[in-house]
Amino acid sequence: MQLRVLSASDVRQGLPMPTAIEGMKAAYAQVSAGQADVPLRSHVQIPAQSGVSLIMPAYLSQTNDLAVKVVSVFPNNPQRNQPTIYAAVLALDAETGRPLALLEGGALTAIRTGAASGAATDVLANPTASVAAIFGSGVQARTQLEAICAVRPIESIRLYSLNRAQARAFADELIQNPKSKIQNLEVVDSPAAAVRGADIICTATTSTTPVFDGRDLQVGAHVNAIGSFRPTMQEVDVETIRRSWVVVDSRPAALAEAGDLIIPLTAGEITLSHVHAELGEIINGDKPGRTSADQITYFKSVGLAAQDAVAAR
User: Strand 131-135 and strand 200-203: pairing?
Assistant: First the structure.
């Protein structure tokens, strides 16, 4: 058996962001149309490191994509000068089950997660949205920004991170990028300074508590929340959820893993009816997306193996 091995550089070359965004739309459409077998991922806890390894298989019948991802999230890794996330994706032949390729999963995860927010932003954000706020300064934050810039005319960016030095390095990268069209870039000192007046907010952190106050959101804002992936993690507060038209990547996955929703549901502060749609339902035309320019929209992604399968293909 021959197995193709693709490095992070190979993955980045083979999966440009615009292509990845269209791929995520196709993945979400199949999930919501019942054309994907995506079991809830298995969690293996490593308490001594506050880490978790996740096993994520998926098969998509329309595009005939089959893959399994193993991803580890170890929040203490930056102290060892290592990335928070390590991952590998095994792509399989859906006709025979034969392993086809092993892909470096950190780059693939970052790109497909950014592309998920790019897809949601394209579907839900106001067309003229030009001011972005990014929470976090790691790899995920970078692809979040890349994705929203691919679908909206972003002119101004506010960066907020507890690691100010890392945020400054992120800002320097953007300033020095010759392809950048950003006219105004600022590393801000507070969550409020990031959120107030922002059209698009992306949260890409490992925080277990809300990173901004929902009362600071302006009307018409769109929020992409991609950092929290456990029931005990709450990156976005209840006020944001109350004010928003809530869209998820998958109802079963979000209601099993998204603390942003599970915590207020458990407390009785919202009901299940507050989750209006899956993104795929909107893409397929089964549910409405944004209904007015003043509406606040919120997209919660916990990450689906369907995304990895499409990205790997």
Answer: parallel
DSSP assignments along 269-286, one per residue: SS-GGGEEEEHHHHHTTS
CA distance 125 to 224: 10
Q: Distance between CA 95 and CA 39 in Å, rounded?
A: 20
Of the candidates 269, 193, 278, which has an alpha carbon nearest to the alpha carbon of residue 238?
269
CA atoms within 13 A on the CB side of 218: 19
Do residues 258 and 300 make contact, with C-beta atoms less than 8 angstroms apart?
A: yes
27 Cβ neighbours under 8 A, 6+ residues apart: 36, 60, 304, 306, 307, 309, 310
Instruction: Please give the DSSP secondary-structure letter assigned to residue 47.
Output: G
- Kindly report the CA angle at 91 between 89 and 95, in degrees rounded to 5? 160
Kindly state the tokens that stand for 92. 């399989």
Average pLDDT, consecutive stretches of 10 residues, N- to C-terminus, the chain (313 residues): 95 96 98 95 93 96 97 92 92 97 95 98 97 94 95 96 90 78 87 98 94 98 92 94 97 94 96 96 97 97 95 96
Which residues, in sequence order, are bridge partners of residue 46?
A: 51
Tell me the C-alpha distance between 10 and 31, whole Å: 27
> How is residue 226 written in tokens?
């991609």
